[in-house]
Amino acid sequence: MIQYGDTMILFEDGKPKQFITVTQGQTYQNKYGAYHHYTFLVKPGEEILSKNGTGPIYLMTPNPHLITETVPHKTQILFMADISMIILKLCLKPGQRVIESGTGSGSLSCSLAAAVGHKGRLFTFEFNKERANNGKELFAKLKINQATCFWRDVYTNGFLKGDDVENQGEFPQENSVDAIFLDLPQPWLALDHSKKMIKKGGRICCFSPCIEQVQKTALELRQQGWKNLETLECLKRHFERRVKQEQSLFDDVQKKVCTDQNKRVTYSSGINQAYGHTGYLTFAQYI
Fold first, then answer.
1. How far apart are alpha carbons 68 and 137 in whole angstroms?
2. What pLDDT score was predicted for residue 62?
3. pLDDT in tens, 226-257
4. Where does CATH 3.40.50.150 sit in the chain?
5. What's the rounded Cα separation, in Å, for the pair 91 and 251?
6. pTM of the predicted model, to two decimals?
7. Of 167, 166, 113, 116, whose CA–CA distance to 144 is shortest?
8. CATH architecture designation of domain 7-61
9. Residue 190, C-beta contacts closer than 8 angstroms, at least 6 positions apart
């Protein structure tokens, strides 16, 4: 059952719309009317009607996919095709420790935190102070306690605990993390710091929108002794279900319309246009 204080994802008109924290005495208003928050104290996914008895909405428990669809876009975010490939190729599993640099809107951060579970740790670093604070608020709102967000320029200061009083909480130690993800304009400038943090056998992923960034990153990775380099691009394409009426050969010969002879054929067809380029994922392993 949903309780006061829970943060849920509100579905309206069949789509995830926003985060909403169920608060005693509050009212949610949309084009269908008013919804008192006490009517939200139901099981997740149950239909909730407005005071006028119209416009059903639904409250769903946050999960990585719904968070990605709902989180406000402070920056360009990674979507499920890239996120799933990152988690797979970094070999993430519960209990591991992961560093992320480039928190952004926190979309990937929530998926990484879910992958390592409550016994794992996610240390995420963001150069922009406003986005760093937004990340902290998002983790607190969604009760993602295994994630810690730091405001820091990792090019200059790296990932170890320093003298900056702004950052509180547990920092990663040298040679202690299983995987690193870099979403930076110049990821090659953070590779020295990354090498200090990664365990033997650990993996790194660098996200870059441009192939020139990939080339510089790959060159620096090779010079530092990283192995098993691989660059991927993930493109997503939807398929639709379609139905067409197929006329029998008998109808063509007799020039008659025999509806009982006609067949309804269901088939799938890919949409001609795939989702466009988001970026390149460069993976490597420290051996």
1. 16
2. 96
3. 999 999 999 877 777 777 766 555 555 455 55
4. 65-235+277-285
5. 58
6. 0.86
7. 113
8. Roll (3.10)
9. 101, 154, 155, 158, 182, 184
